[in-house]
Amino acid sequence: MPKSVRDIPEFPAYVEGQTDHEFMAAARAQGPLARNRLGIISGFSLANMDMINDDRWTRQIELEGLFVSGVRDGPMFDFQRNALLFSNGQTHRNRRGPLVRSFANKVIAEMRPNIAARSRSLVATLRGAGSIDFVEAIAGPFPAQVIAAIIGASEDDTGMFARHVYSAIRGLSHCSDEIRAESDADMAALDSYVADLIAPRRACPETDFLSTYLERVKDGPLTEDEVRAQLAALVLAGSDTTRGALTSTVSQLLQHPEQWALLVEDPDRWAEAAVLEGLRFDPVIGSLPRITLEPREIEGFLIPKGSFVAVSMLTALRDPDVYRDPDRFNITRTDHPRLHPVFGGGPHRCLGEALARIELEEALKTLVRMVPDMQLDGPPVRLRGYGAVRNLSGMSVLI
After folding, report:
1. Ranges of the chain whose pLDDT falls below 50
2. Long-range contacts of 296-299 (CB under 8 A, 24+ apart)
3. CA 155, CA 134: separation in Å to the nearest integer?
């Protein structure tokens, strides 16, 4: 007979100085599931993740995450209410459909030369500068420039655009009242900026992504708020996660000089592998929480309908049943699943996966070719957080 939710152990107390991986490993050592103070039930294995991402018995969180945090209005609330990231069923299909063809793999692959050129231009302005903040100078501006170009934002606006994005994204996770207020202000500014981009394209369409998207949605069923929200979602998702993934990957490569040397020696051979391993080893996504649609037994526990469930990305991507020597950063490994778990699964799998992978690959190729002697100038980056997009510290490098 299955046990009840009450029998699931609570997460252990955090020990000062623990890394997120050490904390999650301690939680996993207690048993196959754990509960946090908000009532979210977490699993730890990749098999658990595959089960929980199944749309037949769970669904994407919509506004429940904000309700738990006591948020019931404001710019971030309005964004989540209208964005495809937080929708299900036909609503999700209506919001995602017009974007799918624009982000088809072939379309994105054709952008690779332009993305590569942008990475070279950015690094060329920094080469020889000495010590720089990698996040502020490279990892942040690069994906923001790419996504800004895709939606038709002015190159001169990229700095302002990036500031709004990297502040607003904090409101997608549980946060303090102070950060919530800052996030709301930047989300409102981003929404207004998107509205200003839309108006001239409607008046004078061009042969670009934004004009094509507006043509696809002009006859409904999306509301004007939904149209803006999908574009804002592209900006948020397409900037912040790539910023974190690039910083995390470069940090690990520089901490493992023999791995960096492999990439320097043959970037065309090892860039894709380095990206896959960087995304696995210290992922920028902490978990992908869902809500159960029916009772279900997981690992001997009966999980009721309406429960918040999630799987720790940190432990799932170091699952010893899937990855050999999982706690070792190794760009030569050959045991990655065919579909990288960090991008989610099913109909909610990340729309920008192909774009993110190309950006990361081309950024790494540029760095090892233009600044092959780059090295850390201080501590490596530290990613923190267990859910949604994790926070990252600064990281200085000599370039």
Report:
1. none
2. 296/57, 297/2, 298/32, 298/33, 298/43, 298/48, 298/51, 298/52, 299/31, 299/32, 299/33, 299/43, 299/48
3. 20
* Sign, Cα dihedral of 51, 57, 59, 63: negative
What pLDDT does 89 receive? 95
Q: Which of 259, 292, 285 lies closest to 353, judged by CA?
A: 285
For residue 318, what is the DSSP state? T
pLDDT computed for residue 367 by the predictor? 98
Query: Looking at this protein, which amino acid is placed at residue 4?
Result: S
Region of 300 (left: φ > 0; alpha: ψ -120 to 50; beta: rest) is left
The DSSP symbol for 134 reads H
The pLDDT value given to residue 155: 82
Instruction: Count other C-beta atoms under 10 Å from residue 154's C-beta.
Output: 11
Whether a cis peptide bond, with omega within 30° of 0, leads into 75 is no
CA distance 345 to 327: 24
Query: Residues near 288 by Cβ (< 8 Å), separated by ≥ 6?
Result: 49, 53, 310, 311, 313, 344
Please state at what angle helix 158-168 crosses helix 224-255, rounded to 10 degrees.
90
What's the distance, CA 9 to chain centroid?
A: 28
Query: What pLDDT is recorded for position 325?
Result: 98
pLDDT of residue 154: 86
What's residue 49's pLDDT? 95
Dihedral over Cα of 53, 56, 62, 65: its sign: negative
Tell me if 29 sits within 8 A of 42, measured CB to CB: no
pLDDT at 30: 96
pLDDT at position 287, please? 94
CATH of region 5-398, choose from 3.40.50.720, 2.40.50.100, 1.10.630.10, 3.40.190.10: 1.10.630.10
How confident is the model at residue 11, as a pLDDT? 97
Nearest to 382 by CA among 21, 13, 5: 21
Cβ atoms within 10 Å, residue 28: 20
Alpha helices in 173-312 (DSSP H): 177-203, 209-217, 224-255, 257-265, 267-281
Q: Token pair of 4, please?
A: 């009840």
